[in-house]
Amino acid sequence: MEWGNSANINEEHLARLEEIDANLLQRAQSLAGQTDAPGQQEVKQAGDLVSSLSKGPAGGHEERVTNCRVQRPIWSLRAQVNRSQAAAVKAAQSIQALHERFASIERTVLDKDPQETALSRDRLSALLPGMEALLEDSKGSANGDAARADLVQSISEAKELLAREQTQVPRHDIESARQGLYQAADRVVQAQNRTSGIDCRQQDCLALTFDDGPSPISSQVFKALQDNHAVASFFSIGQKIDAQGGNTLAKIAQAGFPVGSHTWSHTDFALISAQHLQGREFSDAAAAVKASTGRPVTLVRPPHGSVNEQSRTDLLNGLAAGIALYNVDSYDWAPQASASSVEKKVLSQVRPGSIILMHDAYQHTADALPHIIDQLRARGDQVRFVTITQLTGEYPRAGDVYYSRTNILRM
Ligand SMILES: [Zn+2]
């Protein structure tokens, strides 16, 4: 599933990027003759790149893995995974190449566009609450003083840019401030990791995640994690956060466990964009989580693990949140699931760097959890249970999709 989905998501993004860049080319050409217009040679090379990508084969992984339960010989499944992985990587390289080739054209053309500049300002201000929460949470982090000072500086520069009239600040300055914030935040995250003795490049880090709460099971899951000295992430459904659920989330967040959003009503991303439900499904859900935890949402978990291009853009522009997927499914949601089936599913798929999908909504999940933690710890003395941010060592990038420590799909 993981690589089939990665290929689809990257190819969808690449197609959109080609459309955006074709439009940028037209606008660049219409600037010809103006003093700050991009050079003809540059525009031609960028155009050549777009048309060479469009002519290429659509990935060569024609048969996609859409259903994990399809009965097929393991050899044929593995071959297909390899093709999907190759297609995902190829699309990612093309995305990167387009970004590099179009960087200066984008700067010239979009700096002149008030709508694009306003959008950039929105993205930057959406990022600030999460950055300020990181600053607050990293207080007293033994190795973090220099990194925190840089983040303080980056936040105040960003605020200063946003306080000035839009016409006084070019778009590319806003974008640089946004990138600067991410880099400063990454250094704080890495300093926090050092303080906690976490280095997921060297250790066998695992990110346990729990969706579909809060529910009465959430407290049991939380207790099992605490009793076993393990950290995990929770992704809550906005409309389930009643007074009792909110109290549970407050306790979970107090212990330093991140709580993300799993939309307001467990609605598929495709439906959210088709029916324009972003306000309720993304914004209201994030506000409900924040009201309980006191922390802004920096990661969203898509219902049914399904991501689309429009929602990635919506999350980039609106919440400044990343998208947390997973590469291990515990199948605790399946009708026949039991504590032992959940344990087997996790233990058979997990590898260092995995993000593991479970649900704080089933008794069998809470029952299986202590055994899963024990079994995983028994695999080596380098096993660490971490948050997704600790796992990647980076502040979540808005719109990026996180499958595991190393499989991250960039916008
Ligand atoms: Zn769910």
TrEMBL record:
Keywords: Hydrolase, Metal-binding. Residues 32-64 are annotated as: Disordered. PROSITE patterns: NODB (PS51677). Pfam families: Polysacc_deac_1. The keyword Nuclease does not apply. Residues 204-386 form the NodB homology domain. The keyword Metal-binding applies. This is NodB homology domain-containing protein. It comes from Bombiscardovia nodaiensis.
